[in-house]
Amino acid sequence: MGRSASAAPAVMVEVEDVVVRISNPDRIYFPGVGPGAGVTKLDLAEYHLSVGSGMVNALRERPCMLHRYPKGLVGQPGIEKVHQKKVPSGKPSWVETVSVHFPRFDRDVDELCVTRLASVIWAVQMSAVEFHPWNSRRADVERPDEWRIDLDPGPDADWARVRRVAGVVHEVLDELGAVGYPKTSGGSGIHVNVRIEPTVTFADLRRAAAAFAEEVRRRAPDDVATTWWRKDRDPAHVFVDWNQNTRDHTVAAAYSVRGVPSARVSAPVRWDEIDDCVPDDFTVLTMPARFEALGDLHADIDDHPFDVASLVEWAARDEAAGESPIPSAGSDHGAP
């Protein structure tokens, strides 16, 4: 990786049975990363090819928002990041979409719906760096099939604390009989994905996630926060962000690159690796070899669906006791 930033002709990339044209292949997206001038647009395409089956597994059939960086990594002077929900016009016919409704604006939007690797490479051509899928699939967008546990460290929380909280999460999941699939967030935290039966609403999944978060807090009160308002949290605590299970809230997919200077990725890890890894272990430079050696650590997630009914019961218990971290009806909880 790491080519010259000078102008270069487009590169044609063959993916499955289609050819994707990569324009400006030498545009630098991550300056200073790697042996040359930095990671280029073509490097990003090659990265996604190298982890292709894992990326498609994480995105398959899900509405997907893109974080696009038309001129490269955010932070360069004059560069803006674009949060792209609507698929750009002029897409190839083989790029599939799914229509989702946004009540706040009373409009329907066609979002990218990945069913094949070529669609991922096309999105890279459209300057996408981050892929943020919904936790529901297009067969029934209103019924989530993935519960997401987001361990979001406060500004004074170190990685050791995140690791400890991950261990408690694993313990509670095991007791529930739920199979969790951890990954680094690509930032400073950890995500754990759990496949669930698509039988509950987003509102009930959010309630269930909040009840789970409260149980983790009870077991690790010196490390965990669940309260919604940031001002009420200890900055050294890890927020178990139950609100990520709200409709249209998304997190970076497994294998997604993140828009941070080191070109980290959101990397699936085994539970027994968490104590020995740090987020910077997983970048666009290191992940291809790891993927080749280990394959997709989330490959069998669909084989282990969990029924969240027991957690919905926990939620009802906590609500009755006044212990739910979800703000009461009518309060403003749109922003922490």
TrEMBL record:
Pfam families: LigD_Prim-Pol. Residues 40-298 form the DNA ligase D polymerase domain. InterPro entries: LigD_pol_dom (IPR014145), NHEJ_LigD (IPR052171). Transmembrane segments: none annotated. It comes from the Bacteria. Gene3D superfamilies: DNA primase, PRIM domain. This is DNA polymerase domain-containing protein.
